[in-house]
Fold this sequence. Notes:
The chain is about 10% helix and about 10% strand. It has one helix and two strands; from the N terminus they run βαβ. It has one helix spanning about 10-20; strands at about 5-10, 45. The radius of gyration is 12 Å and the shape is globular.
Amino acid sequence: MGNDFIYLNSIETYCEYCGFEIKHPLVAVVNMAEAKRNYPECKLNYGFYALWLKQGVACSLCCR
């Protein structure tokens, strides 16, 4: 894993990155099980506020 970040500066770019339909440019509620892009272990930089709800131990989120 490199030190490069993937910058997602808006809801619109986030939806495009994950393959979700853009229904509103400022708000999105998504189910990551339906994402069209697999998330390898990488560093993502969000330029917006996000609320993550997760269930189970197979999913991990960390802030650095």
